[in-house]
Amino acid sequence: MTTGLLFKGPLKQPWLNAAVNIIMLAFSVLTLYALLLTSIDDIGKLTHYQISEFTINYQGGFVRRGLLGEILLRFCTYTGCSPIPIIFTLCWGCFIFVTVFLLYVFYKHRICWWIIPTSYIIGASYINLIRKDFIVISLFILALYLYRNSRWSAAARLVCLCVITALTILIYEGMAFLILPIVAWITFADDTIRVNLWFRAASLYIPLVAMAACSVYTGDAVTAQAIHDSWQPWTGEIIGPYMSQSLWALRWSIYDSLTTNQSILLAVCSHQPTSTIVYRILIWVILLYMGARYISSMSLGRRSDLEDDNAHAAALFIFIFICMTPLWLGLSCDFGRLSMQLFAITFISNHYLPSSIVPRCIVDNLTLLNYKIDKLIPSTPFITLLLLFTGISPCLFNIESLWDWSVINSLFEYFHTKWLLFHPQ
Q1: How far apart are the C-alpha atoms of 321 and 317, rounded to whole Å?
Q2: pLDDT score at 389
Q3: Which of 43, 131, 219, 406 could form a cystine bridge with 223, CB 3.0-4.6 A?
């Protein structure tokens, strides 16, 4: 597995494949190193999102994102265990699981692994790994695994899928924009589910209610204060004397959220620099191009055999991208996290969902469109160059981020800094 995945490549020249593999391996080591350092640093920032997001619970009443915090509070209260090592272990454990699973998926489908450590997926999260992203992605993998591989009845598998999706939404409602559309697609389009339409609709009602509840009960000042007070036994360890950023965000209105996240509409209205708008549009174009072409263009086998698989993944990618529109436009400013979630959920869904779930007309049209695009731009070398020389920033909206967060610049900055450290001017 390791030899086939790490030392081969989609480029025609073997020496180029070897060179890019070495660069990506070096970048992977650097990313893991940065992950560890920043995780250790983040775990002690009591008022920042990195740790305070885990404090949200139901002690002030039902509120969005409160399920995991409620479980954590009750477990720590009953056992006396500190929440900090639990959070650290949970985040790192889920990160490792998702990373290994993505490597397995790429190996299984004979796809080049180069995109995984870049800022388009895993590399986008290393400055804030102590978050809920990989926890909810792990739950989504579990849901799809039980749905596809368990020996339960079709009805039981469908209910299990919807229940785990609901739990995922109660932990982090933002993921609903990605996984809820996929679950809805499965519910109504998978012809392997031998249940009637009414049962399908009733099953999907479970995560829909969870999302509706999170949209209505977003929190307020009283709720935030009650949650803060509930963690008093861990003052100085998981909470500080002042309200944390995550709890403070429970007070936000929709306008506050759009303002804080620099909504693209408000950016236009407030006459922000043109580059902030251009960067977002350019990133969307790059994401859509790579998502629609990656599987067949970066294949380690015969690309002609993967065109249907590529079209299947491209359809899922574009579908999820469109469903994420509210997040792209202003409900989130974390471009790096959104990109990581988009690619990860697409590759995971493509691995588990049957090919028949995408209508044949969509597959044929996407295949034809990709063929025409490839006539203009040779996709394999172009995507390789994009992976090496462009990147996506975590949350800043400027055109310079394309270079700043690239693989080549990250390696250059790291080794240049080390050189200056031992060779001062």
Answers
A1: 6
A2: 96
A3: 219
